[in-house]
Every structure is written in structure tokens, then in C-alpha cells.
Amino acid sequence: MRRDQSKIRETTYFGEHDLPEEQQKTLQKAIRVERINIVTKVIAVIAIFSVAGNSQAMKAAWIEDSLAILPPLAFLIALRFINRKPTPRHPYGYHRAMGIGHLVAAVALLGFGTMLLVDSAMGLFAGEHPAIGLIEIFGMEIWQGWIMVVVSVIVVIPAIIIGRINAKLAPPLHNKVLYADADMNKADWMTGIATAVGLTGVGFGLWWFDAAVAIFISFDIINDGYKNVRGGLAGLIDARATTTNMKDPHPLIQQVREQVMELDWVDEADVRMRDLGMVFHTEVFVVPYQGQMPPLDEVERIRKKLSESDWKLHDLVIIPVAELPEEFLPQIDQKEV
Predict the structure, then answer these.
(1) What SS3 string covers 194-229?
(2) How far apart are CA 243 and CA 334, in angstroms?
(3) Both ends of the chain: CA-CA distance in Å?
(4) Which spans are transmembrane here (predicted)?
(5) 87-91, 113-117, 300-304 — most confident range
(6) Which one of 49, 87, 112, 196 has the largest count of C-beta atoms within 10 Å of its C-beta?
(7) Distance from chain centroid for Cα 328
(8) 268 in the Ramachandran plot: left (φ > 0), alpha (ψ -120 to 50) or beta?
(9) Would you say 102 and 235 are in contact if contact means Cβ atoms under 8 Å apart?
(10) CA distances from 109 to 40, 174, 223 (A)
């Protein structure tokens, strides 16, 4: 038991604070899930490649499973970097590694969706009939498409399970790589089902069904890829911190501002918060009432209290100013409150 706890602590350095126990357990679960994810994807790639034949959808499914290895790989590699302590050359630490991992996963998702759309559309408009022959099993000749259907359905089972698990693990860890990987797994199982449906259509004489279903699925994958690429780039260029699904401003921005405004010596305050990957860099600008600036040890006590209110507030500073600078406008529009 002690050995396990020690192992957990070795992999959870997040700057000034360590992860809370709940997040430590969640992170260890995420690591196990992503390792299993890689293994299942490798098996799926081998299985699909061995029966792909000339099916357009099977070829797309094979490439998709190959690309799907990138998000879990990016997550595990990024974890090794963000665990490093800050150095004189990297005073903010290596938390951006997780943002880079998110972008890698997002580009893989967008790239696959685009490839699937273009390749399937070209095959459909060119009138390419998938050439799927017969295979002999135990002396019986079976249309190879039915073997493909069975394989396509079997390989999506791990993707459904892992995708749902990652979607639940991402918010408590504030990890957008896991969120993108959940989208990738969704794309994976949707492609697998589409492949099975498309091949079934071909089996009943609808040669175009294979490519048509793949095109239909590609639009949803492209949408998820675009959303994640946009979110990944936004984090790397210091956009406002957002929730894991990248839809809303993170509630900590408002919570920190409200906590500061409750101090009796604060006249005005505002918060500038950016996402470093799993943790935030936060600057709190405060305008004290005339002649009521507290001593430095009181300011430091408040800074530590604010920082300790949430593990994601890893790098928080309080900056007393005479007036709120216009260039640091509020990050929450009134219409969003």
C-alpha cells in the first residue's frame, strides 16, 4: 500500500501544490486506461489490416485506428514533462506540454475526418465498386465482407468503453487531451459501426453504401476535430481559461474575483487567468481603498488562501494597482454571467 502511494506522488508534481487525493487516484486510473487504449488500438489495427481487402470503409477504419493511437500516446508523454519541476530556463514549469498533447490529438482527429471525407467522396464520385471476394473457411466459401462486418463490430467495443471512461475522467483532472481522446474514441466506434453498415449494404448489392456512410460520419468527426484544434490553439496563445469542453469561461475566474471583492480593504478587483494545461496561471489585480493597503504579510496570507482554495490555482499572484488597467479588461462578459 505504501509503495502504491509513493508511486502516485512521484507522478503528480503540479508545481506549488500536489494533486488532491481524489485527483491522484483519477490520474492513475487515466494512465491505466490510456495504456490499455494503446494496446487495444494496436490489436484493432492488425485485425482490420488483415481483413481490409478493397473496402473503402475498412481502409478508412484502419487509418482511423492508426491515428487514434496518437491521443493516448500524447497524454502519457505529456505527463512525463509536466511532472518536472520549474528550472531557471523554464520558470513556469512544463505544464504547456499537456496543451501540446491536446493539439496533437486534435490535429489527428481533424486530419482523419478530412481524409475520410476526401477519400470516400473521390471513390463515390468515381463510381469505384468495392471488390470484395470470397474466402474459404473450414471448406465453406464465405463472402469476405461478412468477415469484415464481424471484425468492425468487435473492434469498436473497447472504443465505446474507453471513450465513455475518458469523458468522465477529463473534467475532474481538467485535462483536454483526455477530452479529445474521448472524441477520438467516439469517432472510432462511429466509423466501425458505419463500416459494418456500409459493408452490409454492399452485401445486398448497394455498392455506393460503403462510401456514402463513411462521408456521413466524416462530417461529425471533422466538427469534433475543428473544435479541439481551436481549443488547443487557444490555450497555447493564452486565451481565457475555459471549462474542459472549451465552451464556457472557467468558473474559477468569477469565484476568485468574488473572494477578493469580499475583502474589506478592496475597492475594485479583476482576474486574468490562462490555462497552462491542467493548471492555471492567475493574476489578481486589486485596487485598495485610499489609505487601507494592508501589510505585505497580510497580502501573502490572502494569496496563499486563494491559491489553496483549488488545486488548479497553481500559480497565483496578487498585484495591487492604483486603478484597473484598461488592457486587462474583465474576462467574463456581463452577458455570460
Answers:
(1) HHHHHHHHHHCCCCCHHHHHHHHHHHHHHHHHHHHH
(2) 18
(3) 45
(4) 38-55, 61-82, 103-126, 146-167, 187-209
(5) 300-304
(6) 112
(7) 29
(8) beta
(9) yes
(10) 18, 20, 9
pTM of this structure: 0.77
Q: Are 272 and 285 in contact (CB under 8 A)?
A: yes
Q: In this structure, what C-alpha cell is assigned to residue 31?
A: 494512465
Element (H, E) at 268: strand 266-275
Instruction: Decide: helix, strand or coil at residue 48.
Output: helix
Q: Is 303 helix (H, G, I), strand (E, B) or coil?
A: helix
Q: How many CB atoms lie within 10 A of CB 204?
A: 7
For residue 314, give the nearest of 262, 270, 242, 252 by alpha carbon.
Answer: 252
Q: What is the DSSP letter of 335?
A: G
Are the CB atoms for 54 and 131 separated by under 8 Å? yes
Residue 13, all three cell numbers? 508534481
Map grid coordinates 461478412 to a residue. Answer: 146
Q: Name the most confidently modeled range: 242-246, 259-263, 307-311.
A: 259-263
